[in-house]
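forwarding from the other thread:

> can someone predict this with NAP?

sure thing
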Amino acid sequence: MTGMRLATIGTSKITGSFLEAVQETGRMTYTAAYSRSADKARAFSEQHGGIQWFTSVEALAQSDAVDVVYVASPNGLHFQQVMTLLNGGKHVICEKPIFITLNELEQAFSLAEEKHVFLFQAIRNIQTPVFKELKAALHRAGRLRSSVLQLIQYSSRYDLFLDGKITNIFSPQFAGGALEDLGVYPLSAAISLFGPPADSAYFPVMLSSGVDGSGTLVLNYEDFVCTILCSKIAHSDAPSEIHGEQGTLRINNASNIHRLEWIDAHTKQDELIAEDKTDNDMIYEITCFADTIEQNDLETYRTLKEHSREVVRVMEKSRRDNGILFPNDQV
Ligand SMILES: NC(=O)c1ccc[n+]([C@@H]2O[C@H](COP(=O)([O-])OP(=O)(O)OC[C@H]3O[C@@H](n4cnc5c(N)ncnc54)[C@H](OP(=O)(O)O)[C@@H]3O)[C@@H](O)[C@H]2O)c1
């Protein structure tokens, strides 16, 4: 057995991808699955080499056979499930967007501290080596003037929506919408690169279900502006860029960051700075979380917590400014 013993909540595709990445890193041993359905929990656990399964989050939280839990349930369920797990003394890796309100986040961080466990938001783009190269290369751009970071991905679930079937990600009940689901990636990148903005304004395109199908988030940094585009109802392969007086840094995509280019403003020459051909970039976040727990790396943890706070703060303000309210807003 290697490393910590891992359990999962959620049996959709993303949990499968996470477990493939866990296996690739060899940093955790898969032990148990939770599902609302016993058949699904058992089948999922066995399929991925687990030895236990649960249909109660409370029972999972109390299990002696689990150290860390990966939570990939609909956004609106994260808070209750994570609080139960933290109460049981488990480390938690929770999918993006970790929570819906800053109040939830602060409650969970306090409980994690009280229980001497770690709580992480799984936001894989900022953990990739190419993103780290981008951060290191930022100075080359000189004085920053603008940035456009975008994630415009037509969702097959929008076809269902148009047919009258509202899936979780288009439902306010489960805290869906473009900003929570996709905007969180470019926003996380912006906050990691530029820090918290002085001000922000969100302009959503609303759907009849009460969530944003797409939107534009403007982050004001006083001497430059970062514009974030996110959409689940249109498609674009356009790259994301940071524009400075000396040149432009361009990444292929705001969530799957695997290519970084530099374009000199004066010579217009294009240079490839970094490229990563890894299939499953969840390996980087898993490595970071495993290192942080095993080495009790409180400095990295503090940085990650502060980052999550700023991301949740901007997203909550964006929603509230536009009257986009979820059941979690009552917590
Ligand atoms: N990092 C990434 O690249 C990435 C990609 C996709 C999604 N995500 C994140 O992962 C999370 C899950 O997203 P998803 O698209 O997989 O969500 P989903 O398909 O709507 O649901 C995920 C799981 O939650 C359970 N679930 C579904 N509906 C439920 C309900 N009404 N009540 C209680 N449990 C329910 C189901 O598991 P059981 O039926 O087994 O209980 C399901 O497998 C979200 O936070 C999302 O933002 C991350």
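Residues 10-12, 14, 35-37, 40, 72-75, 77, 95-96, 122, 124, 168-169, 181 surround NAP (CB under 6 Å). thats all i got for now
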